Amino acid sequence: xxxxxxxxxxxxxxxxxxxxxxxxxxxxxxxxxxxxxxxxxxxxxxxxxxxxxxxxxxxxxxxxxxxxxx
Amino acid sequence: xxxxxxxxxxxxxxxxxxxxxxxxxxxxxxxxxxxxxxxxxxxxxxxxxxxxxxxxxxxxxxxxxxxxxxxxxxxxxxxxxxxxxxxxxxxxxxxxxxxxxxxxxxxxxxxxxxxxxxxxxxxxxxxxxxxxxxxxxxxxxxxxxxxxxxxxxxxxxxxxxxxxxxxxxxxxxxxxxxxxxxxxxxxxxxx
Lengths: 70, 191
Hints:
The complex is a heterodimer of chains A (70) and B (191). Chain A is mainly α. Chain A folds into 2 domains: 1-31; 36-70, no CATH class. Chain A has 3 helices and no strands. Chain A starts with a helix and ends with a helix. Chain B is an all-alpha fold and 191 residues long. Chain B has one domain. In chain B, 75% of the residues lie in helices and 0% in strands. The mean pLDDT of chain B is 87. The A-B interface holds A 1, 6, 9-10, 13-14, 17-18, 20-21, 24-25, 27-28, 31-34, 36-38, 40, 43, 47-49, 51-54 and B 25-26, 28-29, 36, 62-63, 66-68, 71, 74-75, 78-79, 81-82, 85-86, 88-89, 92-93, 96, 99-100, 103-104, 107-108, 110-111, 170.
């Protein structure tokens, strides 16, 4: 197989995977959480894992709303 | 016999947390309550096994035949991320009871380096399919064993008023992990 074909294939594979991730992320965000579900944000306050999507550090707008309510 | 050695080595002698010091961040973050530690571990076992199978299949069916083995790291990261997103969405929509129990831990698992380690080592250690499945189960089981034991110790330590202030919180937690690692070092050489 020619080298340029392999490069194109590599780009295609990575692009498809990135596209799948974006699609899955959007679909997941649009899916509403079931009622009565445990609220992660309350349990996650002070958690050291800031890379996690649920960590309150990553949702400053939500935090400011909750503070406004209080 | 080979399967048994792989399983025992992954759970005890090469324990992913205490021998290789991976996954320490979730170990400290999700060990304050034993029920959280069990939930996190069960979700981790499921994600590691499934992402291990997916990444192993992707490598042997797509990357290796095309001569694109160098893409394994990039593609495995994306496969794990996509898989976790789809699982979370599926649980939210169709299995709400399970989402209530384990869904909270799924985003945490994306950031757990144990998942990527298993996916990569399944390839670099040259496992066949059965060995890969056993290894993918054994590594998170080793993680579960440590995190559950650690959470039980931690619940007792956190409530102890005799603990000096400078040792409270993560300080004593890390000392406990270090002592557990020393204890596990005693298993070295049995497999």
